[in-house]
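Problem: given the chain below (180 residues), write out its structure.
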Amino acid sequence: MKKALIVIDYTYDFVADDGKLTCGKPGQQIAQKISSLIEEYIAAEELVVFTNDIHFEGDPFHPETKLFPPHNIAGTAGRELYGSVKNSYEKHADRCLSLDKTRYSAFAGTNLHQLLQERGIKNIALVGVCTDICVLHTAVDAYNLGYTLSIYKDGVASFNQAGHDWALGHFTGTLGAEVI
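Solution.
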């Protein structure tokens, strides 16, 4: 293993038309790209990590409570992976890692960095939603931890097109990432 694909928040609440904090069509349009990348990374015996937002009903202390409607609530269908990405995960679950995260970044409060270090992984690629929130914060933490970083342009989406476009520029111009 030399690299890892990190799939960020590709859940029902973030992607389905009736999701609680959905990207809608832009999020749905990246499903095939993400699924094909999962297959590619698995075939190459590279690591695939699913990092999914988790919140708890009525939590008044979480900072997102004041910013967004309740979403990805533990025990609800909103936390389930969505569409073909769910199918890819189910097909390869025994060869993937899955982590819950309680903050935007997949590194904040998780053992993701440790898991990557144990495997000698220094190159990571990001896909998922939302480009300008969870993907961005994961990318910033990856940069600060010294990872070589790639983002698949047709594998990320947001409910905020201006934020999406800004984040794509920030990845290359400030984080030195390769946007593929």
